[in-house]
Amino acid sequence: MLQSTLDRTAVLAPNYRPLEVTLVSGDNCWVTDVDGKKYLDCLAGYSALNFGHNNPELNQAVVDQLHKLTLVSRAFDHDQMLPFAKELTELTGTEMMLPMNTGAEAVESAIKAARKWGYEVKGVAPEQANIVVAENSFHGRTTTIVSFSTDADAKNGYGPYTPGFRVVPYGDIEAVKEAIDENTVAALFEPIQGESGVVMPPENFLPDLRELCTENDVLMILDEIQSGLGRTGDTLAQDLYGIRADLTTLGKALGGGVLPVSAVVGRRDVLSVLTPGTHGSTFGGNPLACAVGRAVIKILKEGEVQERAKRLGEILGERLDKIQEDGHLAEVRHRGLWAGIDVEPRLGLTGRQLCERLAERGMLCKDTHGSTIRLAPPLTISEEDLNYAMDILESVLNEQAAEIGIV
Ligand SMILES: *Cc1c(COP(=O)(O)O)cnc(C)c1O
Q1: How large is the C-alpha radius of gyration of the chain?
Q2: Ligand 1 centroid to 108 CA: how many Å?
Q3: What pLDDT is stored for residue 301 in this prediction?
Q4: Pairing between strand 30-33 and 339-343?
Q5: Which of 261, 255, 194 is nearest to 222 (CA)?
Q6: Which residues does residue 28 pair with via DSSP β-bridges, in sequence order?
Q7: What three-state secondary structure class fits 210?
Q8: Which UniProt keywords apply (predicted)?
């Protein structure tokens, strides 16, 4: 339903331009708008809703904890904190965890830990630490993070910028090698670039980066806020390569689509530089967040969701490949239940226009930029619903092709 444009621009900061749908409820992969129209959610809150809307297991965990204890601040311990830490480190094969709230905070925390580790352990000269990062990355919206963004919209107008970052082309191991010097404390990368349109690095990049970081005593930091927790068909995207980063950031799905819950997991000797008073967060690791996080871990521990993502991901890939063969997509990139598709330029359809047409037909997704859209349905989607979504996509693209005379 169309909301009054005036109302919207009058009271709400215009930093988003959402599709014209106003949602009121959700159930697993389906959401309903104010007029009762149903849509298949193929964005899933940018992967925050990996386990679907209104998930009964997660809801139960929230409700149970809600009536017990929700916040103590970090001035006191509570009974959910240590079990959450233990279960999360076990799930991710790591030693230690630092709880935060949003993804950007987890990335900021990893940057802070890496710098402090650099000065105190590696012996980098004061104020000289640098971190190697990638072009077209997305790590959040804080002033420091946008300082090394290569997206003009995300960055421009927010200076002065935080120094200490070296930007290299994504997936270019030689460029990382050249950027590293004695003051390099970390290399921070997304294992798969989500916001950029589900862009995969060359097959050897992450294993090579692991080796390069170890050789040079540089921390490998992988931002798995979007790629982690089942999306790719494995618990973490780095599992696909059998490697472990020194620090990994998690967020989005860690809060089950209920609360912002993020964490840095990784090496004990690195996270141990964060001594009392040197870092913190009022809400980080609150009892409610830990309870939701534990319920998420419980689901992931069974491994079934990851298996589904892998199996349904194959169907997603086959369907998209077929649409590409029909000549309607210029490129298809997919891993697990996660895909970036570039509309064939001849169709003359922007990503935004495509998303609008899909929404009319009852399928919600989001363009990333230009003619690229990302598909990331909840991992709990049924095969039938996934095929239904692909039917809608196929028919919208077929219609556009017919309309402009390409068949
Ligand atoms: C979404 C995202 C973030 C930022 O998370 P917020 O919770 O929005 O701060 C950071 N890194 C990656 C890879 C993301 O996808």
Answers
A1: 21
A2: 11
A3: 98
A4: unpaired
A5: 194
A6: 53
A7: helix
A8: Amino-acid biosynthesis, Aminotransferase, Proline biosynthesis, Pyridoxal phosphate, Transferase
Please state, in angstroms and rounded to a whole number, the distance separating the CA atoms of residues 322 and 135.
31
Question: Distance (Å, rounded) from C-alpha 310 to C-alpha 335?
Answer: 8
Contact assessment for residue 212 and residue 243, using Cβ atoms and an 8 Å cutoff = no
Can you count the helices (H) and strands (E) in the chain? 14, 15
Q: What are phi and psi of 80, to 5 degrees?
A: -90, -20
How far does CA 323 lie from the centroid of its chain? 26
Ligand 1 shell residues, CB under 6 Å: 46, 102-104, 107, 138-140, 190, 194-195, 223, 225-226, 251-252
Distance from C-alpha of 250 to C-alpha of 89, rounded to nearest angstrom: 11
Residue 226 structure tokens: 């979007």
Name the one residue in this structure whose structure tokens are 């630490």: 129
E strands present in 292-383: 329-334, 339-343, 363-364, 366-369, 372-375
CA dihedral defined by 242, 248, 249, 253, rounded to 10 degrees? Answer: 30
Cα of 48 vs centre of ligand 1, distance in Å, is 10
- pTM, two decimal places: 0.97
Q: In whole angstroms, give the CA distance from residue 226 to residue 107.
A: 12
> What domains sit in the chain, N to C, each tagged with a CATH number?
8-36+304-403 (3.90.1150.10), 56-301 (3.40.640.10)
Which one, of 298, 365, 271, lies nearest residue 55 by Cα? 298
User: How far is Cα 199 from Cα 208, in angstroms, rounded to an integer?
Assistant: 18
SS3 249: strand
3-state SS assignment for residue 332? strand
Confidence at 1, pLDDT banded by 50, 70, 90: very low
Q: What are the pLDDT digits (tens) for 337-375? A: 999 999 999 999 999 999 999 999 999 999 998 999 999
Strand partners, 342: 331, 372
Helix (H, G, I), strand (E, B) or coil at 141: coil
For residue 47, give the amino acid letter. S
Tell me, yes or no, if 68 is annotated catalytic: no
